[in-house]
Specification:
The protein is mainly α. 79% of the residues lie in helices and 0% in strands.
Length: 452
């Protein structure tokens, strides 16, 4: 649901704006409030999973996410909705690393974990497409409130069933939360994400734009300095001795920066150029969602077992690169959905391969007591990449496109942004090929190298 919730709101935004009387400039805060808090608190959520236990953190995240979803659906004004969305982001920041740690600690490294992470990754890989479709259906049939209300019964079912399905947390051992590190990391990443999502809306030369990014980067730099001198750090820098962690974190940043933005670019093409309604545009993502699910659940375990992490990830990211080129070339003013469908099918299949492989990589060779922070690190890179990619690629797509832009100029901008995204994704594939260990080196003994 945390993956779906990131995109399900997009389709409902116009109706939310009308009903709650948001201004044109403030409507985007419905999305950014969730993104900013989620991106800022992920490392703290990962630390909570490692120190308090993944099961406890998971329960806390479910409760926070469910209650805030109810509050969002009941909101009667802009302030109430934005605050509820911010709390939703906090719940998601607790849920994301704890769910991944529950998977990685309950399944031994190898085939069993690969299969479990493939199922987990299927939800993430198809989440945006499911969100776009679900948002269109719910908004059209029941109203915008139900893009939030739909979370409540799901959270209730999860809270009711999880105690019987999840074993008790193992003893976590001594150690605290590293308060100075937690404050610096949370403030730093929150400001960076705030600046990145605010810059395109209100202008980069503002306090909420470039100034927030610069201050956030300074705080993140101080965070790294503090971590290097702390006996029990929030983020042990020794974790980067594991090449898989560094490569997966960078890969997640690049992958989500391009693939995450591709949803926005493709939606713009469908609705602005082809004239699709939100509901029809949502259904246009259905083939992508199906391909992502099938690739993640059927192909990923097979390829990981036969080829290893590096080859699976390189195949997935290279496929995404090709799909972006095919999509860009298929866009035209008088085009049709059939012209871009081959790119959509390849996009869904390739993303379904790459997304789970990234998180298999980041968990491989990492000690059990550090699985929470490792997953949070990759997730933080994922959401930072999404924010950076959206800001940069939308700027490319809209450069020179004014309020009275013609369809020709809009398509030209979307094509250019798609080709730039393809180049960046290809760079991520090359990086994975160079940095990740070959298949014969991925088996790491329990005495983890990054603990040395």
């Amino acid at each position: 649901m945390t993956a779906v919730d990131f995109d399900i709101v997009f389709v409902a935004l116009p109706q939310i704006g009308r009903d709650l009387e948001f201004s044109e400039q403030s409507l985007q805060t419905v999305v950014s409030a969730y993104t900013v808090v989620l991106g800022g608190f992920l490392l703290l959520g990962g630390r909570a999973a490692d120190r308090l236990g993944a099961r406890r953190t998971f329960f806390a995240g479910l409760a926070v996410f469910g209650l805030s979803s109810l509050a969002a659906g009941l909101a009667e004004g802009p302030t109430a909705l934005v605050l509820a969305r911010a709390v939703q982001g906090l719940g998601a920041a607790l849920l994301t690393p704890s769910t991944l740690k529950l998977v990685t600690t309950h399944f031994a490294e190898g085939a069993a974990r690969n299969k479990a992470l493939a199922i987990w990754g299927a939800a993430g890989a198809s989440g945006a497409a499911v969100g776009a479709l679900g948002g269109g259906v719910l908004t059209s049939l029941l109203g915008w409130e139900w893009v939030f209300f739909v979370n409540v019964p799901l959270m209730v079912i999860a809270l009711a069933s999880a105690p019987a399905l999840l074993g008790k947390d193992a003893a976590t051992g001594p150690g605290g939360f590293d308060l100075p590190g937690a404050v610096l990391a949370t403030a730093g990443f929150t400001l960076v994400v705030l600046g990145l999502v605010s810059g395109p809306e209100i202008g980069w030369l503002t306090v909420r734009g470039l100034a927030a990014v610069v201050l956030g980067v300074v705080l993140v730099g101080l965070f790294v300095l503090v971590e290097s001198r702390t006996l029990d750090p929030l983020l042990p820098l020794s974790i980067f001795r594991n090449r898989n962690v560094g490569a997966a974190t960078t890969g997640a940043f690049l992958f989500m920066g391009t693939v995450g933005t591709q949803y926005h670019l493709f939606t713009t093409y469908l609705q602005t150029v082809l004239g699709y309604t939100p509901l029809t545009a949502g259904f246009a993502f259905l083939p992508l969602s199906v391909c992502s699910l099938l690739a993640s659940m059927k192909l990923v375990p097979l390829l990981l077992g036969r080829l290893g992490i590096r080859s699976t990830l390189v195949i997935g990211m290279t496929g995404v690169t090709v799909s972006m080129v095919v999509l860009a070339l298929g866009m035209s003013v008088d085009g049709s959905y059939w012209a871009v469908l081959p790119g959509v099918l390849l996009w869904g299949t390739s993303a379904g391969l790459a997304f789970p492989a990234l998180f298999v990589s980041v968990s491989t060779g990492v000690a059990l007591e550090r699985q929470g922070i490792a997953s949070a690190l990759a997730s933080t890179a994922q959401y930072l990449g999404s924010a950076v990619g959206l800001a940069a690629l939308v700027a490319v797509a809209t450069a020179g496109v004014g309020p009275d832009a013609t369809s020709d100029s809009i398509v030209a901008g979307l094509r250019l942004a798609g080709l730039v995204a393809a180049a960046l994704t290809l760079a991520g594939a090359v990086l994975a090929a160079i940095v990740l260990r070959p298949r014969t080196e991925t088996a790491v003994p329990k005495a983890q190298t990054e603990n040395a």
